[in-house]
Amino acid sequence: MVCANVCSMYYSKVISPERARVRVLRVEPALDFPLFCRNCEDAPCIAACPEGALSRTSKGIIIVNNRLCKGSGECVKACPYNAIHINPDTGKAIKCIQCGECVDRCPADALFMTTEEDLAKKDPDERMRNIYDRHRNILYSKEEGI
Amino acid sequence: MIHGVGGYSLWVDLSKGSIEKKPLDEDLIRKYLLGAGYLSRVLYDMIPEGIDPLGEKNVLGIATGLLTASMFPQASRHVVAAHSPLTGVWGESHAAGFWGAELKFAGYDALFFTGISKSPVYLHIKDSDVALIDASDLWGKDVFETDDIIKKKHGRQCRILSIGQAGENMVKFAAIMNDRDRASARSGLGAVMGSKRLKAISVRGTGKIDVADSKNYLKHMDEFYRRMMANPFTPGRIRYGTTSLVELMQHIGRLPSYNMKQGVFDGYEKISGEAINEKYLVKARADFSCLQRCGRYTAVRRGPYAFEGGAPEFETQSSMGSRCGNDNLESVLYGHHLCNQYGMDTISLGGTISWAMEAFNEGILTKEDTGGLDLTWGNHETIVRLTKMIAFREGFGDILAEGSARAAEIIGRGTEKFVMAVKRQEIAGQEPRAQKSMGLAAVTAARGADHLYAFPVLDEVGFDEDIKKRFGEKYLPEMAERLNPKYKGIMVKQSEDFMVMIESVGLCKYGTQIPPEFFYDDIALALEIHNGLKFTVKELQEIGERVVNLNRLYNARCGVTRKDDRLPDRLTKEKAPLGPSAGEIVELDQMLDEYYQERGWDLKTGLPTRETLARLGLNDDA
Question: Which ranges of B446-487 does DSSP label H, i.e. alpha helix?
Fold first, then answer.
């Protein structure tokens, strides 16, 4: 949970997985999985926001404009990867913006920035891909407080 | 105001079904910290003398430490305590996982349970919503089933602490489990939970922990992380957890084998860390803020011992392996899995089965006693069968469920001499004739035989530099020599003070005692930036000492004196027969004298003197 702790401390100056932009899920047996925003090419969150608060930067990162965000939660509903949440303190949407603070600090070196193509190269026998496919439904099922 | 904590405790009267929320006692925190220290004080004042540990007067306390849920390396722990049904003295046990941190996020640091519920219940905490809920559908379920059912009902993000069938059946060494495979195993506190008909505590916390120095917090933590990861021990810990200690302990003759008759085991390679890694390890698993991730996950894919789940540590490899003369690794892995499932302490389980095995092999116990079971050394089918029979108190298992000391009292016939226990708790996996400090630590520990209360490991092998730093150069070379009894009283005393303090802040013994990376000054800094509490190193040392003395006073109330600080004759009178420690005995009295002297305790009674108590601010408790 180091990544979630780093994230909430870095952005909110508290320790609170509920306020982190990354969420770590444990799915028995033995799968620990961090949920991050993938900055989808067809990002449904952008279209879903009634305030137009989400936009894409020139580097391809989707960001939330805090001035415009009213916390309607439409982006949360639209995200297929369960990677946007409403911060209970500010009432505004929060998501990973690939700042890399957690990547640098993960003691297991389990985090790295990658693309679909790079990941396929790192996983030639598709072992990781198979584990992921087996669990993707449970990982992204939206349930209270995740 | 204290930062970095939930700020409240919950008091649950199970007889009345009432729940009360109280703020933490800040004065008490300044004298005892939180965790083990806080529980020691509160329960000392609450638990009356001479109670039935399984009766309604016993109080079960659960507390997190001051740094639990902080970002300090390995700040994942909580402590449970009560009057122990196994030992009849102070009972305390610790575990890591995610449950303790979740409790903090829900806004609580400690829970206290009094009375006995009329019917099975579990406590559900969702932030400020707290309720006792009927658990009749959970009663009779194992630890994994309980975890599944509660998560289905309250959400998969809940963290669950529960007992299995062993706790319900009040097995004297039943564990309290959390996060499926983390165990507060020693002292039999699972039986206390069972006696109260409290099946589980599920927690979901969505709150936040504010810290005292948020501006510099990450900067300090980065440095703690850097040091932990750079420690030469860390790569090995990640690779093996504690499992490779089998190889090291064999090497120094400290691997308890055949009920501690000897400290070397011919089949050690078959139950070693390397053997686990080669065929069964799935992955290492970390707890909440753990960098060393000694937790293991293993699978046996086929055969009678097939399972998938949490893997044993060194203690279980020795207790269910070498101690029972068992070199069948799959049975050790599976037996350990059953202990997690039913909720039992693997150390006392293995210690009790190996007691029975020795009596059987000596011809004192027969198949008539065991219900036809063959208890020949190393019979792994019997070990696994007995594990189930103990959890459910079936047949011969009902006697073994009392622990080896009581079982020997029931059986008699001279089997008492095979009991390898102190104050009725089975000695853990340290053959003390091969490391004298461990023999002393086992008798002075407040909760009965125990390697963790002091955890004197710096004389194990090659820590001369750290002994120099922590104790002083004048104690070298003797203190670093594991077969030399000299200075071990000083080492155990100081280690107890430090370890009890560590259990009061919620950190792990790994990273503080071994490897000896973080010491008092680091903890003082962490308490300052996390909690905003200023303690000097000397004050922290004194708090540890105060808690140890208070634990001793608790035990004195139970009738404990020097006469109870005894090892079995085998370890103090019979020379180790084989291996690197051949010819050795534990020179206990010599070490005890030095220890009591160092503590300021009376040499004859082994109890704190009035001067010592006055110095620690415990005059009113004399």
Answer: 464-470
**Under a CB-based contact definition with an 8 Å cutoff, are residues B461 and B253 in contact?**
no
A10 and B286: CB-CB below 8 Å? no
Name the CATH topology of B242-419: 1.10.569
B567-618 pLDDT tens trace: 999 999 999 999 999 999 999 999 999 999 999 999 999 999 999 999 999 9
Structure token digits, residue B276: 């686990």
Question: How far, in Å, are B302, B503, B536 from residue B521 at the CA level?
Answer: 50, 16, 8
Chain-centroid distance, C-alpha B43: 18
Going from N- to C-terminal start, the domains of chain B cover 8-204, 242-419, 436-621
The dotted CATH code for A2-140 is: 3.30.70.20
Question: Looking at the domain that runs over B436-621, which CATH code has it been given?
Answer: 1.10.599.10
Phi, psi of B101 (to 5 degrees): -65, -40
Q: Are B400 and B166 in contact (CB under 8 A)?
A: no
Contacts of B505 (CB under 8 A, 6+ apart): B33, B34, B35, B65, B66, B67, B68, B75, B523, B526, B527
What ipTM was assigned to the predicted interfaces of this complex? 0.95
Chain A residues with CB within 8 Å of chain B CB? 1-2, 5-6, 8-10, 12-19, 26, 28-30, 32, 88-89, 105, 107-108, 143-146
Q: Which CATH number fits domain B8-204: 3.60.9.10, 3.90.700.10, 3.30.9.10, 3.40.50.300?
A: 3.60.9.10
Helix, strand, coil shares, percent, chain B, to 5: 45, 15, 40
The tens digit of pLDDT for each residue in B394-443 reads 999 999 999 999 999 999 999 999 999 999 999 999 999 999 999 999 99
Query: Which amino acid is present at B547?
Result: V
Exposure class string for B495-528: b at 16+ Cβ within 10 A, else e: bbbbbbbbbbbbbbbbbbbbbbbbbbebbbbbbb
Does B280 lie at the interface with A, CB-CB under 8 angstroms? Answer: no
The model's pTM is: 0.97
